[in-house]
Write a structure and sequence with these properties.
Order of helices and strands: EEHEEHHHEEHEE
Number of helices: 5
Shape: elongated
Helix content: 25-40%
Distance between the termini: 24 Å
Strand order of the largest sheet: 1-2
Structural class: alpha+beta
Radius of gyration: 24 Å
Length: 180
């Protein structure tokens, strides 16, 4: 049995996949290695994402994470004046912080993507099709789909428990017990 949640399939039969990651992918701006750190941070903030996919030579090259970009920026305790700080930030590019990442396809089962994210300790996994970034899968989306599945499975279990079989006269009769 499967249910729909905002057009996203969630299987409710025991052990079945909750479906592919495709419907759960968040759109993400794509940056180049030459993109400035300041621009990448602005794009992340505007999109509400902790990482962005990076393209190089027309192919997915990896992810750049916000925390890595922030490590590249001068601290607030810097002795640089405002103009010098802007010049430093303009010269820093994401190329110094790109991490190669194991991407998943839009058809990858959510459970497999969750295992990869857990093993890598990553809050996000890139979703790539034909070498091109489609977006990113956030751990919050994985949690949402797995919690939805758990709730549906719990509801199915409650329904099964409500139907009790009683014996009588050599045959079996089903009795529906409505729990209140």
């Amino acid at each position: 049995m499967s249910g729909e949640m905002d057009g996203k399939s969630v299987e409710t039969s025991g052990g079945a996949s909750v479906g592919p990651v495709g419907p759960w992918v968040a759109a993400a701006p794509v940056v180049l290695p030459t993109t400035s750190v300041a621009m990448a941070l602005r794009l992340m903030r505007d999109a509400g994402l902790p990482a962005l996919p990076v393209m190089q030579d027309g192919q997915f090259a990896g992810l750049v994470h916000e925390r890595d970009l922030l490590r590249l920026t001068p601290s607030e305790a810097s002795t640089l004046d405002r103009h010098e700080l802007h010049a430093v930030l303009a010269g820093l590019t994401v190329a110094r912080a790109v991490r190669p990442g194991a991407a998943v396809s839009p058809e990858c089962p959510v459970e497999e993507a969750a295992r990869r994210m857990t093993r890598a300790g990553a809050p996000v996994v890139p979703v790539v099709s034909g070498g091109m970034p489609v977006g990113v899968l956030l751990w919050t989306a994985v949690l949402e789909v797995l919690l939805t599945r758990a709730a549906r499975l719990a509801g199915a279990e409650e329904s099964r428990q409500a139907v009790q079989t009683t014996g009588g006269g050599g045959g079996h009769a089903a009795q529906l017990v409505v729990a209140g």
